[in-house]
Recover the amino acids of this structure.
């Protein structure tokens, strides 16, 4: 397995370079270093000299990808792409274009993101699995049909609708929790109730439908028939046998998203005023802060690759038939 | 933070339900056995399943009782309780704390760089330039802040000899401003000033390891202060010239302050280079500078090239606030920037407030500066101010609140709802909420809706010292130039594009059609019949009425475009409109604009793009027609008329986006900018405005109006477009706020009970079904 993991990590390097290159090109197709300078310096009374100085100070006065005026290896290394990308691989994100240390900001803002994402994942998982099991238990009844209709309807509704409805009903009409905001420590709990609730409800449609499919696939297998033939109660069959076997795809799916929990939820954080990494990324895009955008895309890619590796490993843990080689 | 009492209900509910839940956990085995025994040989049925056994009956009875108790409990709970949805700690209840919000974190809090309204909202409470604007008086009037008096001008000729006050402009080589500051003003408590018994600064030479552990300034527990001196003001002026600080006004000041550009070069040459990603501290005091010199501990002089009377206004902006060298010495230590401990985030000032919490991702808190030098609420204002209660606090010591908490609120909907719930003391009005808040009477006057009036909310409106205009690129061969054809074409368009309708549709009536480049409230603006743009409007029945569209069509014919057709091609004249928003939200506006041009037969081609590209087109002068705006830096006509000054053309790197060049206008501008307000200056301004109306490089668009809402517990609110340091004048009634918040936010709990009842009601038959099904399968 160790060799496999090392191989996967090595595979990750060209992937990350590719992601970085694509991000770089997409960003600079839309924004030139001049645009970035003017964005940071403001658009009133900015002189050309100030723009030139800003670019020179931050290394944006070099060519983007190829320095035709340099010689040898410098043609590649004396470029914005190389200078700005190399440090990322050492997780040195440097300073944002507005001057703040990105690593520090990420370390501060990952916790609020996690504070929403983790409960949404765990509570959502518990509810989705329970609901899916219940539907399977009542399969081919009106409860099953009604639930599927309800789930499809829930899947079809925009996430923004859940957010606005949740804020309107629970925060504005019923006055049960603050509509938005955040605080540190235990004081954060009252601010997390609503976004977590909204996150869980918004995920029920797709989550439960998926798990129902997993369970239905298992429930018609031979071993289930055998269990029933032994005289086991349906509840026992479902919980002890069906659930256990269906957990393999569920678990691997969950493991894949675990690292990405740190990355935050873009819209949720914005609407609920949660100072997480999702809103950090949105702000950076709006402010054309390439340094932050690049760092966040890089970090997201790393975490995604990490999630996939963990998924592979988790297969071997939950299913003895799988061997990594 | 202590929990709101309402939350204490949760454990009580849990205790009530818990034993029954545990009973249910134990029951299934017994119940199954019991059912099996009671139905020998029974067959599983899909008919409605209703278990009639004793256990299930008991379960149903228990559930019913529980629901009843819960419903009663939930109904009773919440009456008179403090709000559960209060986003603030209970400990803050009843305190003199003003609550507000910001939707975008400030980019800079260093007065040398900051140049936007959202940043000034904080900075102006912390830093004190020598001058400020009077809170109540109109027109806007400069008064001393830290200065002992308004500085007077002293004119010198080219040899440095004094000139009389009425010396001709051409003879004035230098104007000296002697600024005397009041003694005894102290800085806020700050670690940069902390010293040991020997007077050595405690934190100016911290070990790298200790710096690495610092997260906020609170990690440096010792603080100190010192007296404000004139050297701090001079230090800041030198910072404006420092190249690596990128002051947005460095270029402008280079043309006005004597030796400013050379100073930048001297600083660059003398300063140490960047090491380890951070520039070591460089004491600007050691760099000589003629343009700003310390005279004594409490006086300094600023020397300006020629005459520049607008310089006084700059002295009321944070750019010219004092900066203690100790602050730069503290923050310049290696490793500080890596932890975001920089002057750009942790300001050091002498103002009424200091930034005690700076988490721009969440909250920023301004707290009363214990070292504040003291200031009193104004004792005089405008005649109507006394009736409005704005002089009730005359002579009271400032500031009147202890703290102001600004929360990050990015989206309008939660911000608006929290304002209505009483958790923000004031609010602007977004388009979405406009109809809920404001209604217009038959005469077009804005007023509050009954819902707002019921809550005791007050509405304040003010015409901004800003203008939005439609510009015509005078460098364009079709729409621009000085030919009569082009002039008539621009005038026709000015009539056709109905900005009154624009204001009504797209700004909810928040604006006033503009007749010239100078907004109301600025010297030079004329109201009434004398102030109308007679090329576009007629004065009828005591108001300006836009000329008929037929007149615009006639102008088009005179210009050679009968029915809007280009005589060269015979096709409708095509004009390109540059617009800095390519999103779907701007589609209605752009469609409206197309229709306006179509009224005179012109085919408008919209070139919507992002703001970067838009700016680039403006810089290169490749656009034809565009919309842009300008906010006043200071209340002087020069700050608007310079937008049409030829040498200031955008093509030459200036702010004249229309690239308008008219020697008659330019000559008058050069005279007008150096004059004091008075009839002579007004006459020249009138001539300039008339020239601009005639040539029509702009269709003047509109002056935006700002609407703001304030709760009844907030006092001393008067819109002031120039002053940013108005927080110190605010007064609160926290007891009233608490009372109303509680009344407005009683928790409504019955939906929870209803939801629970629904679940239980659904669960009971489901359990029965499940049990029946399980039993049938087990056999």
């Amino acid at each position: 397995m160790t060799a496999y993991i090392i191989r996967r990590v090595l595979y990750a390097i060209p992937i990350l370079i590719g992601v970085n290159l694509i991000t770089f090109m997409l960003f600079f197709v839309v924004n030139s270093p001049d645009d970035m300078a003017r964005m940071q310096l403001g658009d009133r009374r900015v002189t050309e000299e100030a723009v030139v100085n800003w670019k020179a100070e931050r290394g944006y006065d070099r060519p983007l990808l190829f320095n035709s005026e340099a010689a040898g290896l410098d043609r590649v290394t004396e470029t914005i792409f190389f200078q700005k990308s190399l440090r990322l691989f050492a997780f040195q994100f440097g300073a944002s274009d507005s001057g703040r240390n990105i690593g520090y900001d990420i370390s501060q803002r990952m916790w609020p993101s996690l504070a929403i994402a983790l409960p949404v994942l765990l509570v959502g998982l518990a509810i989705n699995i329970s609901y899916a099991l219940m539907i399977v238990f009542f399969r081919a009844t009106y409860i099953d049909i009604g639930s599927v209709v309800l789930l499809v309807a829930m899947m079809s509704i925009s996430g923004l609708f859940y957010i606005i409805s949740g804020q309107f009903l629970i925060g504005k009409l019923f006055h049960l929790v603050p509509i938005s905001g955040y605080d540190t420590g235990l004081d954060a709990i009252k601010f997390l109730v609503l976004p977590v609730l909204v996150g869980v409800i918004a995920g029920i449609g797709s989550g439960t439908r998926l798990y129902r499919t997993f369970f239905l696939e298992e429930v018609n297998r031979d071993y289930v028939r055998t269990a029933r033939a032994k005289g086991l109660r349906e509840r026992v069959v479902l919980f002890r046998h069906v659930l256990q076997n269906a957990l393999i795809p569920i678990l691997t799916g969950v493991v894949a998203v675990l690292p990405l929990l740190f990355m935050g939820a873009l819209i949720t954080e914005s609407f609920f005023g949660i100072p997480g990494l999702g809103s950090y990324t949105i702000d950076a895009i709006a402010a054309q802060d390439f340094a932050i955008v690049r760092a966040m895309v890089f970090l997201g890619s790393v975490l995604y690759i990490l999630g996939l590796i963990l998924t592979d490993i988790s297969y071997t843990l939950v299913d003895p038939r799988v061997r990594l080689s | 933070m202590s929990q709101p009492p309402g939350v204490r209900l949760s454990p009580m509910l849990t205790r009530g339900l818990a034993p029954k839940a545990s009973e249910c956990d134990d029951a299934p085995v017994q119940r199954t056995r019991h059912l099996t025994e009671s139905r020998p040989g029974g067959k599983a049925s899909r008919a409605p399943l209703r278990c009639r056994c004793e256990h299930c009956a008991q379960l149903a009875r228990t559930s019913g009782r529980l629901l009843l108790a819960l419903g009663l409990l939930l109904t009773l709970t919440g009456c008179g309780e403090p709000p559960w949805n209060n986003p603030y700690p209970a400990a803050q209840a009843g305190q003199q704390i003003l609550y507000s919000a910001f939707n975008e974190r400030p980019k800079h809090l260093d007065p040398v760089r900051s140049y936007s309204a959202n940043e000034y909202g904080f900075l102006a409470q912390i830093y004190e330039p020598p001058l400020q604007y009077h809170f109540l008086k109109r027109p806007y009037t400069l008064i001393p802040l830290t200065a002992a008096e308004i500085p007077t001008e002293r004119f010198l000729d080219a040899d440095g000899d004094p000139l009389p006050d009425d010396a001709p402009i051409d003879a004035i080589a230098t104007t000296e401003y002697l600024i005397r500051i009041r003694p005894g003003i102290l800085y806020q408590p700050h670690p940069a000033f902390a010293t040991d018994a020997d007077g050595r600064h405690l934190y100016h030479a911290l070990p790298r390891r200790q710096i690495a552990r610092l997260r906020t300034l609170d990690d440096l527990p010792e603080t100190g202060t010192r007296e404000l001196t004139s050297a701090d003001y001079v230090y800041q002026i030198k910072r404006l010239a420092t190249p690596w600080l990128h002051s947005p006004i460095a270029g402008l000041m280079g043309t006005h302050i004597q030796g400013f550009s050379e100073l930048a070069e001297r600083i660059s040459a003398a300063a140490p280079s960047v090491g380890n990603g951070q520039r070591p501290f460089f004491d600007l005091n050691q760099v000589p500078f003629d343009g700003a010199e310390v005279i004594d501990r409490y006086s300094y002089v600023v020397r300006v090239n020629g005459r520049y009377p607008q310089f006084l206004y700059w002295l009321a902006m944070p750019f010219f606030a004092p900066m203690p060298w100790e602050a730069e010495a503290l923050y310049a230590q290696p490793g500080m920037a890596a932890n975001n401990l920089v002057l750009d985030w942790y300001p050091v000032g002498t103002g009424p407030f200091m930034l005690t919490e700076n988490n721009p991702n969440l909250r920023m808190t301004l707290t009363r500066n214990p070292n504040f030098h003291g200031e009193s609420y104004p004792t005089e204002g405008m005649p109507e101010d006394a009736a409005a209660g704005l002089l009730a606090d005359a002579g009271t010591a400032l500031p009147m609140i202890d703290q102001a908490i600004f929360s990050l609120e990015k989206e309008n909907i939660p911000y608006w709802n929290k304002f209505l719930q009483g958790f923000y003391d004031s609010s602007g009005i977004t388009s979405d909420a406009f109809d809920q808040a404001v209604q217009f009477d038959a005469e077009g006057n804005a007023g509050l809706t009954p819902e707002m009036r019921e809550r005791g909310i007050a509405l304040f409106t003010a015409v901004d010292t800003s203008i939005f205009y439609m510009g015509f690129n005078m460098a364009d061969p079709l729409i621009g130039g000085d030919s009569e054809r082009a002039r008539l074409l621009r005038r026709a368009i000015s009539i056709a594009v109905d900005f009154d309708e624009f204001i009504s549709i797209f700004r909810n009536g928040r604006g006033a059609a503009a007749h010239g480049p100078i907004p109301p409230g600025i010297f030079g603006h004329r109201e009434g019949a004398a102030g109308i743009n007679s090329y576009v409007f007629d004065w009828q029945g005591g108001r300006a009425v836009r000329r008929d569209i037929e007149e615009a069509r006639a102008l088009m014919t005179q210009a050679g475009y009968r029915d809007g057709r280009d005589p060269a091609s015979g096709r409708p004249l095509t004009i390109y409109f540059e617009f800095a928003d390519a999103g779907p939200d701007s589609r209605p506006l752009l469609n409206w604009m197309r229709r306006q041009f179509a009224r005179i037969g012109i085919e408008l081609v919209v070139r919507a793009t992002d703001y970067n590209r838009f700016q680039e087109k403006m810089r290169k002068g490749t656009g034809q027609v565009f919309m842009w705006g300008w906010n006043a830096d200071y209340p002087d006509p020069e700050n608007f008329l310079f937008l049409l000054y030829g040498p200031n053309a955008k093509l030459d790197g200036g702010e004249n986006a229309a690239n308008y060049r008219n020697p008659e206008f330019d000559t008058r501008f050069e005279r007008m900018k150096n004059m004091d307000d008075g009839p002579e200056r007004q006459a020249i301004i009138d001539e300039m405005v008339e020239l601009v109306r005639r040539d029509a490089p702009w269709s003047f668009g509109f002056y935006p109006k700002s609407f703001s809402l304030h709760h009844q517990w907030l006092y001393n609110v008067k819109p002031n477009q120039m002053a940013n340091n108005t927080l110190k004048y605010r007064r609160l009634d926290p007891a009233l706020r608490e009372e109303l918040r509680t009344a407005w936010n009683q928790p409504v709990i019955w939906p929870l009970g209803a939801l629970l009842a629904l679940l239980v009601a659904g669960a009971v038959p489901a359990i029965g079904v499940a049990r029946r099904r399980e039993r049938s399968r087990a056999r």
